[in-house]
Write a structure and sequence with these properties.
The complex is a heterodimer of chains A (418) and B (407). Chain A has 418 residues and is α/β, with parallel strands linked by helices. Chain A has 16 helices and 16 strands. In chain A, 36% of the residues lie in helices and 14% in strands. In chain A, the strands form 5 sheets. A 6-stranded parallel sheet of chain A has the order 5-2-1-6-7-8, sandwiched between helices. In chain A, strands 9-10-11 form a 3-stranded antiparallel sheet, covered by helices on one side. Chain A has a two-stranded antiparallel ribbon with strand order 3-4. Chain B has 16 helices and 16 strands. Classes of the chains: A alpha/beta (418), B alpha/beta (407). At the A-B interface, strand 3, strand 4, helix 2, helix 6 and helix 7 of A face strand 3, helix 2, helix 6, helix 7 and strand 10 of B.
């Protein structure tokens, strides 16, 4: 990755090379979608209000973790705003909105995630911008969908998790619901917004239509639970319970604590061949013919007893010892339960080059996940670190709109840009 | 005729269970002509009776997961173990736009259907390979149960409250997230091709998909040099206004308040806790962080005094406050936002009668996703596809069937 954050012409050769995105967004939902388009090679210009920059710039505490960088910047802002340029425009001023429309005139995508209705009231809603550029893809977000009584209700990640049923699925049965600190509703919202925008770009290329794209915390979170929702609701009564490992219906697909407190996941389909291989690997050969466990059906009936028995056996040795034994038995697949911080050391993660090895000019080594899809011919790239506020104001006005220094100085003096 | 974003696009899917099929269904939702290629025994997901300990069966022949993950497709059954069958697949791919295959890294190449040879015949082909842990390395393998990727990605460790054992989240996130990323990659590659590019190979793994879902933790840990991302600890959180509380009727409510300066006063008013304004333990942001535990306890007590509906009304009376009820999956069809936005759709299935399914995760207002048809029976469209896509006549199709190449 280039470490020259101010380098011009840093647009990629990804699938969206040549696409221009104007982003007015804040926190995570919109910024995630914007940078994913940037990863794919689009030129993403992030517009921030001088008086109200992206709130994530000040986000230094997430779930009790200090996410501040040495200079006080936010690591969350940093990673959700890579591959973007920043320009400050005051959209509360008419001249600022005119400037935005000028940028939109030859852009492909406009993206905003302010509270539903805010941009319509400012006169830069879809209908306003479609008059300037009928081919524009205009992407907007909401907490609950734009229709209905809650169409303009403010929302953040927790409401998507809470309303969709995701929160209730966390933890063991009987535990209280727990908010997932990974921000699934924001992450999935951003992912699905990017999916929607790229789908709309495909529709425009194939059928010549520009349009508005909408995505909500609620729907994106439900989509993450699609398999469970399908199971519960296709013809069911909606009942769904959390997984209880001590009662796993297939004890051969379950996780077990080893003697050193580390956990291993068994991932066997539960055939009789799996059963005898597992017994051999665990030195429990006597169990192979044990009537309670002799068939998959019997193992299911006696699952509680079998899980307890395996719990006891795994607990006798440290994880590394078990892993070595399983490695000798090709029939038994076992996975360590990693902590998130271990990911860069995972052999599959390394073999597939899932992390970049960038060095940030201010923060030093900064490995980042590259992209969720590997594109053989038009790879995603990380070309720019997150911009400083207004870092590219002059550059964008000069290069994209042809403004000269005098004009830019005038706009700056009037507080229209910063 | 489909009106979606992808009308006119043909996708061949040869995948099983949830990951590949769900991705192909997403493209079908958007109007693509999706042809599901199955072996003569069919996708094993057809005979799935149980998922995560739940009976999902619908009679002897089907189940909810197969039906939902295979909507909006046609089905063709081909014996891919035979050279003639593989020849048919190759012929179908020679005129297709996209291919999603779940055989695992290298498996199709070993059977003479490498990406390179297919691209040679059809340079526009967008080929997406699926895997559990990525296509490279010693563990390159077909996608399997998503628990493996959940274990490896760190997700299993993240479930539940602090101190409780790791727990598998039985929503199947490795598959749903993976499928969503396959669909995203496919539309990106379709866009690139429509803008003058060529076809290409894509790869998506369950492991990377889950890592992508965890990325603010992944990258924050790495940049900050921390060892472990904590589970949420509601007893000891530093921002009690961004936490969840049990109401008097046992139901839960979650607060998502980040702007204390703006929201503290209206929040206290809504809660009937005006006394807190003057309490020096709580009347500044710094004081609330310093006394967070006491504030959690005060709010625990207050929320427990009234049922959830009361608190929803009180908090809802202050327009800017972010809060919501913690629902179960069983509450979704009655949810007013789910209803107003038609997120869960009632569909009449020819055999199963009225059924419900989620619509689509993004709304394209002019080219919306839609429900076109139910999951195909095994081999339901074998003849139609061979006639339409390959121009085979009845005699040739009959001969293939007699030889056991198709069903």
């Amino acid at each position: 990755m280039s470490s020259n954050n101010g380098d011009q012409h840093q647009n990629g050769q990804g699938p969206l090379a040549g696409i221009k995105v104007i982003e007015c967004s804040t926190w995570a939902f919109g910024p995630i979608a914007g940078h994913m388009l940037g990863d794919l090679g689009a030129d993403v210009i992030k517009v921030e209000n001088p008086n109200l920059p992206d709130a994530a710039r000040g986000l230094t505490l997430v779930a009790g973790v200090d996410v501040g960088l040495p200079d006080g910047a936010s690591s969350v802002f940093e990673l959700f705003n890579r591959n973007k340029r920043s320009i400050q425009i005051d959209l509360k001023q008419e001249r600022g909105r005119d400037l935005l429309k000028e940028l939109v005139r030859d852009a492909d995508v406009f993206l905003e995630n302010f509270r539903p209705g805010v941009f319509d009231r400012l006169g830069i809603g879809y209908d306003d911008l479609a008059k300037v550029n009928s081919r524009i893809i205009y992407a907007s977000t909401s907490g609950y969908g734009f229709k209905g009584a809650e169409g303009q209700r403010p929302a953040l990640d927790p409401v998507g998790q809470a309303r969709s049923g995701l929160m209730w699925s966390t933890g063991g049965p009987g535990d209280p619901p727990n908010w997932n600190t990974l921000g699934f509703a924001d992450l999935m919202g951003g992912n699905m917004l990017a999916y929607g925008i790229v789908s709309a770009l495909a529709a425009r290329e194939l059928h010549g239509v520009g349009q508005k794209v909408e995505c909500s915390h609620l729907m994106a979170s439900m989509w993450l639970g699609h398999t469970a929702i399908a199971s519960a609701w296709y013809q069911g009564d909606g009942e769904w319970e959390r997984f209880e490992r001590s009662e796993a219906s297939n004890p051969l697909a379950n996780h077990y604590a080893c003697g050193d407190g580390e956990w291993l996941l068994l991932a066997l389909s539960d055939s009789n061949a799996d059963w005898s291989s597992l017994c051999e690997a665990l030195d429990l050969e006597a169990l192979i013919e044990e009537p309670r466990f002799a068939t998959a059906e019997r193992r299911r009936e006696n699952a509680v007893a079998l899980v307890a028995l395996l719990d006891a056996r795994f607990g006798e040795r440290p994880a590394a010892e078990w892993q070595q034994r399983f490695a000798e038995s090709e029939a038994v697949t076992v996975h360590p339960l990693r902590r998130i911080a271990d990911l860069p050391n995972d052999p599959a993660v390394q073999a597939n080059g899932y992390f970049t090895d960038g060095v940030h000019p201010r923060y030093g080594p900064m490995p980042e996940l590259l992209h969720p899809v590997a594109f053989g011919k038009t790879p995603a790239t990380v070309r720019r670190y997150a911009p400083q506020l207004g870092e590219h104001t002059w550059e964008v006005l000069h290069e994209e709109l042809g403004y000269d220094s005098e004009r830019i100085a005038g706009l700056t003096a009037e507080g229209v840009v910063g | 005729m489909a009106e979606g974003a992808l009308r006119g696009i043909t996708i061949i899917e040869a995948a099983t269970h949830v990951l590949g099929p769900m991705a192909a269904a997403m493209l079908g939702d958007q109007g693509a002509d999706v042809i599901k290629v199955e072996g003569l025994a069919g996708d094993p997901a057809r005979t799935l009776r149980e998922y995560a300990g739940y009976d999902v069966s619908l009679g002897e022949e089907s189940n909810a997961i197969f039906e939902v993950m295979n909507r909006n497709k046609r089905g063709i059954a081909i014996d891919l173990e035979s050279a003639a069958g593989r020849g048919l697949l190759r012929e179908l791919l020679s005129t297709a736009d996209g291919f999603i295959e779940g055989f695992g890294p290298g498996a199709l190449a070993a059977r003479g259907l490498s990406y390179e040879s297919l691209a040679n015949e059809n340079p526009g082909l967008i080929y997406c390979g699926l895997s559990a842990m990525g296509p490279a390395g010693e563990e390159a393998a077909a996608p399997g149960p998503d628990a493996a990727a959940a274990a490896r990605s760190g997700l299993l460790w993240m479930a539940g409250a602090p101190g409780s054992p790791p727990n598998w989240n039985n929503l199947g996130l490795g598959d749903t997230m993976g499928a969503s990323m396959v669909a995203y990659g496919m539309v990106a590659a379709i866009t690139a091709r429509a803008r003058g590019g060529t076809g290409q190979r894509l790869d998506v793994s369950q492991l990377m998909a889950l890592a992508w879902l965890e990325r603010w933790a992944v990258e924050t840990l790495l940049v900050r040099g921390l060892d472990e991302w904590p589970r949420f600890d509601r007893e000891n959180t530093r921002n009690p206004l961004f936490s969840h509380y049990r109401c008097g009727d046992g139901e839960w409510i979650i607060l998502g308040i980040v702007d204390h300066e703006r929201d503290w006063d209206p929040f206290c008013e809504a809660m009937g806790l005006e006394w807190m304004h003057g309490d020096e333990r709580f009347n500044t942001g710094a004081a609330r962080i310093a006394n967070a535990r006491a504030l959690v306890q005060a709010l625990d007590r207050r929320f427990a005094e009234e049922p959830r509906a009361y608190w929803e009304e009180r908090l809802g009376s202050q327009r800017a406050l972010v809060f919501d009820r913690v629902q179960k999956i069983r509450d979704l069809p009655q949810d007013p936002a789910v209803q107003a936005n038609a997120y869960l759709q009632d569909v009449e299935h020819p055999r199963h009668g009225p059924v419900k399914m989620l619509t689509h995760p993004a709304l394209l207002t002019k080219t919306p996703a839609a429900y076109y048809c139910p999951a195909p029976e095994l081999g339901q469209h074998t003849d139609a596809v061979l006639r339409e896509r390959l121009g085979y006549d009845d005699a040739r199709i009959a001969a293939l069937r007699a030889e056991g190449v198709i069903r």
